[in-house]
Design a protein that fits this description.
Layout lengths: L13 H35 L1
Length: about 50
């Protein structure tokens, strides 16, 4: 039921959202390292040719 002048409780689970955010951050960092490694390999190949 609805009540006048009542605050609605949050429907967000903070702990789960923080864990999800940390997982996304770690995945982003791993992908950034992969891109950097690929760039290093391409640079090495272009220098050796």
């Amino acid at each position: 039921t609805l009540q006048d002048s009542a605050l609605e409780g949050s429907n967000v689970d903070i702990v789960n959202e923080m864990v999800a955010m940390i997982n996304v951050q770690r995945a982003y960092e791993m992908n950034a390292k992969m891109v950097s490694a690929a760039d290093d390999m391409l640079q090495f190949i272009s220098q050796t040719l």
